[in-house]
Design goal:
The complex is a heterodimer. Chain A is of the alpha+beta class. Chain A is built from two helices and five strands, in the order E-H-E-E-E-H-E. Chain A has a single domain, classed as 2-Layer Sandwich (Alpha-Beta Plaits). Chain A is 19% helix and 23% strand. Chain A starts with a strand and ends in a 15-residue tail after the last strand. Chain B has a domain of 281 residues: Cytochrome p450 (Orthogonal Bundle). In chain B, a hairpin with an 8-residue loop joins strand 9 and strand 10. Chain B starts with 21 loop residues before the first helix and ends with a strand. The chains are: A alpha+beta, B alpha+beta. Chains A and B meet through helix 1 of A and helix 4 and helix 5 of B.
């Protein structure tokens, strides 16, 4: 599962553009009260989609979660 | 250091009466590294390539929007302070200001305005078609975006004509021949302290302040009310910041989309095969909207200022140097686009920079503009409204706004 990546949002950088919600609506939602992106389900994506999202986030708030090793970045086992 | 190679002239406003100086940009792009463009007492580095534009946009700390200003010329400290807005600030001010308005412009919240936009588009297109054509700018391209942005902000749409008039004067402020007297609209402020150096900015400030006062005493569920409330509680927005933010939202929210719609109509007239393709497809695809945006490139440049010594495309840039991104060049970079001078609505990848190069100053109204353009094209398609340009367009002599003052279109 090395082709999976876990993402995170740096709330300090987020300016609430909504690009993440547009591209990955299952995972991200811009909170109408705070005006910043929140994670609403496991932020794990195939690496190509994860990298595209990081590239297209204007503020640089969407980042690869480097605290997580690839083995941990496995999608939850829904069995 | 040897003096750097000099760029051909891309700033004289008169050049732009003939359109974007693409041959100059091609020459600049073909030159290794960056060229230096003399300007006033100094100059700036010309950023023309797609990759370089992205590099600059994505590093807001190294390439500041707040130092000096985002125009080609520097503003004095008092003018910088008076004019501070989401355009010419860095984090954390930029982040704070942007968050105050961002939620109204997310893709999800913009979609809520689709029906309102369609109603406005239908009314304007019906009138245009009934008249058998006419000036596309005054009849469709200008009224559509101003009415939509005013609806989104909570500004009375009945004032649209007045606010378009002010916007026209602001655009004129980017040329070298503004027509307003310094005291027009009752202005007493030093013109250097006003956006675009225009007395029309004073009028727009005044309008915004009066509306803000109304919303304070009689709050509504709209963006203007949210802003004046932010001003009231918690020092989240100063009075000057409110003024400037209101100014940016109204001006940038109408002028840029108006320009895109004007160029869009001209492009479909110049490339009728592309309109036939739309008709054959029977629907407006995302690539068609993106290509219209690339083609139009409504804002021609933004400047940043280096906060440290650095290097770009092999050229050394010193701390304090001006670095200016020319979006029409990046949008036709042959390293990114095949046949960049063809208007082709089927481009599968189209990473254009008509909303900026992708950093935190990414256009706030990007999703609004896309939605407006899509709805307009859909309704043109519904009416089988193929346009044919009659005569030359009347262009704005500006190196900043790719403006069209008027362009005659007949209905085929």
């Amino acid at each position: 599962m090395t082709d999976q990546m876990r993402l995170c949002v740096d709330a300090g950088l987020c300016i609430g553009v909504g690009q993440c919600e547009l591209l990955e609506p299952e995972i991200f939602r811009v909170d109408d009260d705070t005006g910043t992106s929140t994670v609403i389900s496991a932020p794990i994506l195939p690496s190509q989609r994860a990298e595209a999202l990081v590239d297209q986030c204007p503020s640089g708030a969407i980042q690869i979660d480097s605290d997580v090793s690839p083995t941990q970045a496995r999608p939850p086992d829904t069995g | 250091m040897a003096s750097p190679a000099t760029s051909p002239d891309i700033v004289s406003p008169a050049i732009y009466l003939e359109g974007i100086p693409h041959s100059q940009f091609s020459e600049i792009m073909a030159h290794p590294g960056l060229l230096w463009h003399p300007y006033q007492d100094g100059g700036f580095w010309v950023v023309s390539r797609h990759a370089d534009t992205k590099t600059v946009s994505k590093q807001p700390k190294l390439f500041s929007s707040a130092v000096g200003h985002t125009n080609l010329w520097d503003l004095k400290a008092d003018a910088l302070e008076a004019r501070r807005s989401i355009i010419d600030t860095d984090a954390p001010d930029h982040t704070r200001l942007r968050r105050l308005v961002s939620k109204a412009f997310t893709p999800r919240n913009i979609n809520l305005w689709e029906n309102v936009t369609r109603e406005i588009a239908c009314e304007l297109l019906d009138d245009f078609q009934y008249a058998g054509g006419g000036d596309w700018v005054s009849m469709v391209a200008a009224p559509l975006p101003i009415r939509v942005i005013l609806s989104v902000l909570g500004v009375p749409v009945s004032d649209a004509d007045y606010l378009v008039e002010l916007s026209n004067y602001l655009v004129e402020g980017t040329t070298d021949q503004p027509s307003l007297a310094a005291d027009a609209f009752g202005n007493t402020t030093d013109l250097d302290l006003l956006p675009f150096g225009s007395p029309a900015s004073h009028a727009l400030f005044e309008y915004g302040e009066q509306l803000g006062a109304k919303r304070k005493s009689d709050p509504k569920d709209d963006v203007v009310t949210q802003l004046v409330m932010a001003e009231e509680d918690g020092n989240r927005l100063s009075a000057a910041e409110y003024r400037n933010l209101f100014h940016v939202l109204v001006f940038a929210g109408n002028e840029t989309t108006r320009t895109a719609i004007a160029h869009g109509a001209m492009a479909f007239s110049e490339f009728p095969d592309q309109w036939k393709r739309l008709e054959a497809d029977g629907e407006i695809s995302a690539p068609a909207v993106e290509e219209l945006l690339r083609w139009a490139t409504p804002v021609l440049h933004m400047r940043r200022t280096a906060t440290d010594d650095t290097e770009l495309s092999g050229t050394s840039i010193a701390r304090g140097d001006k670095v200016v991104m020319w979006y029409p060049a990046a949008n036709r970079d042959p390293a990114v686009y095949d046949h960049p001078f063809d208007f082709d609505i089927s481009r599968e990848t189209n990473p254009h920079f008509s909303f900026g190069g992708g950093g935190p100053h990414f256009c706030l109204g990007a999703f609004l503009a896309r939605m407006e353009i899509r709805i307009l094209l859909e309704e043109m398609l519904n009416r089988k409204l193929a346009l044919r340009q009659v005569g030359a367009a009347d262009r704005v002599a500006s190196n900043f706004i790719h403006g069209i003052l008027s362009v005659e279109m007949e209905v085929k």
